[in-house]
Specification:
The strands form three sheets. The protein has a five-stranded parallel sheet, with helices on both faces. It has a five-stranded mixed sheet with strand order 7-8-11-9-10, with helices on both faces. It is of the alpha/beta class. The protein has helices at about 20-30, 35-40, 45, 60-70, 90-100, 120-125, 145-160, 175-185; strands at about 5-10, 30-35, 50-55, 75-80, 110-115, 125-130, 135-140, 160-165, 195-200, 205-210, 225-230, 235-240, 240-245. α4 (about 60-70) crosses α5 and α7 packs parallel to α8. It starts with a strand and ends in a 12-residue tail after the last strand.
């Protein structure tokens, strides 16, 4: 007998209007919802009447195991994350748990439902900063050694990538952003634009534009709810917006 199904769903940046129609339909049809307490709270009206498994941060592998257990018993299970579940979200832990336990790729069936990531949400607030090659780097060394993160930052800065920084600073991690700025400054000028967005696309959204040279003045305004975008050598600021030109020939209107 075939087992159930696991849907890996991103809730987007927070605004209900930015949850995809596909995600809402799957959430409505599922038997059970598995997620972090804070994310469950965002969709309480949708999960009413369903089995809800809510766990705190730090219990990612336990959440993955519970989702697989429920699906193996025949349930349609939604595992949720904020942003896109495939970008620093719960998609990884679920697939890792399945692989470690001999998953055959079919039972349970797994479907990933894409969503708006934090980088995309922050970019929409800032203007058009991601119009050339870009990368996302998390400054959290909880799962990745800091030395590895340093190498990636240095390589991205050397390669002139636009860089979206996730988890830039927390109460415990206060020096990583200082070193990250120094690493990027090895390859970029002090006038390189930097966009900082806190709670992107949420009611208490805040954002500002600065430069690599002046960024250190704003460290206290940056936390785990913040996504940063560091421009490349062509990025500029105009009209209060951050723009990385795509490379098209631009004509000017005659006056």
């Amino acid at each position: 007998m075939n087992s159930g199904r696991i849907y890996l769903i991103g809730l987007g940046p927070g605004d209900r209007a930015l949850i995809t129609t596909a995600a809402l339909e799957v959430l409505s049809d599922c038997d059970a919802i598995v997620g972090y307490d804070g994310y469950i709270a965002q969709i309480l009206d949708i999960v009413d009447g369903k089995q809800v498994v809510s766990m705190p941060l730090g219990k990612e592998m336990e959440r993955a195991a519970k989702a697989v257990e429920l699906a193996s018993a025949g349930s349609a299970v939604a595992v949720i994350s904020s942003g896109d579940i495939g970008v620093y979200g719960m998609a990884g832990p679920v697939f890792e748990h399945l692989a470690a336990n001999g998953w055959d790729g079919e039972n349970p069936q797994v479907e990933v439902v894409p969503a708006v990531s934090a980088a995309q949400a922050a970019a929409s607030v800032l203007g058009a900063p991601l119009m050339q090659d870009f990368c996302a780097i998390s400054l959290s060394d909880l799962m990745t050694p800091w030395q590895t993160i340093r190498k990636r930052l240095d390589a991205a800065a050397y390669g002139d990538f636009v860089i979206a920084l996730y988890n830039p600073r927390s109460k415990r991690r206060r020096e990583q952003i200082v070193e990250a700025r120094s690493l990027v400054l090895k390859h970029r000028g002090v006038d390189t634009p930097v966009g900082v967005v806190r709670n992107a696309c949420r009611p208490n959204q805040q954002h500002f534009l600065t430069t690599l040279g002046e960024l250190e003045q704003h460290f206290e305004r940056i936390d785990m709810f913040t996504t940063m975008v560091i421009g490349n050598s062509t990025t500029y600021i105009h009209g209060g917006r951050m723009v990385t030109p795509r490379g098209y020939a631009v004509s000017t209107s005659a006056k």
